[in-house]
Write a structure and sequence with these properties.
about 160 residues, 6 helices, elongated
Length: about 160
């Protein structure tokens, strides 16, 4: 059995890679989702919960931007891809930067500044939903054995492990 680079990234350098690339972003995202439910349900425009929600969005957006930049410049250029599952897993994980950094920019008033509070809340909710979708796609494809989608382990260099981190 083989693993995607997504799973390998989480498996090497234990426990640090798992904490940096999975635990912290997922914990922040889950906290953001939890507060989002109350903010949207109660249409909160201010208050402690809305402030927590706002700062979670900003922190998560910038944290994930850092992950994206680090992986995109130091890891991705050196990957010997392990078939479609590998590409979908890594690509989906990295795509999470778009909605998450979008949330940070929205919370900082850099985008959608001319929108109503209700329109901003809707955009925030949509961006968070998009992140949850791409994150789950990354997890599902990341857990697949790449051979199930046609990767051939006899390809030269196919056993190359990610020796970064």
């Amino acid at each position: 059995m083989s693993m995607t680079h997504y799973m390998e990234l989480l498996a090497v350098n234990q426990p640090w890679n798992l904490i940096i690339y999975m635990v912290i972003p997922v914990a922040l995202a889950e906290a953001l989702v939890a507060t989002e439910f109350f903010v949207v349900f109660h249409q909160l425009k201010s208050g402690a919960l809305r402030t927590v929600n706002k700062w979670l969005g900003i922190i998560l957006g910038f944290y994930f931007l850092g992950i994206f930049l680090q992986l995109d410049f130091s890891v991705v250029p050196h990957i010997d891809w392990r078939g479609p599952a590998d590409i979908v897993a890594v690509g989906s994980y990295l795509a999470g930067v778009v909605p998450l950094f979008g949330i940070a920019l929205l919370e900082l008033g850099i985008i959608a500044s001319g929108k109503t509070d209700e329109e901003k809340m809707k955009l925030h909710f949509i961006l968070l939903t998009v992140f949850l979708i791409v994150a789950h796609v990354a997890m599902v494809f990341g857990m697949l054995d790449p051979q199930l989608m046609g990767w051939n382990t006899t390809h030269p260099g196919s056993q190359h492990m990610m020796n970064h981190q």
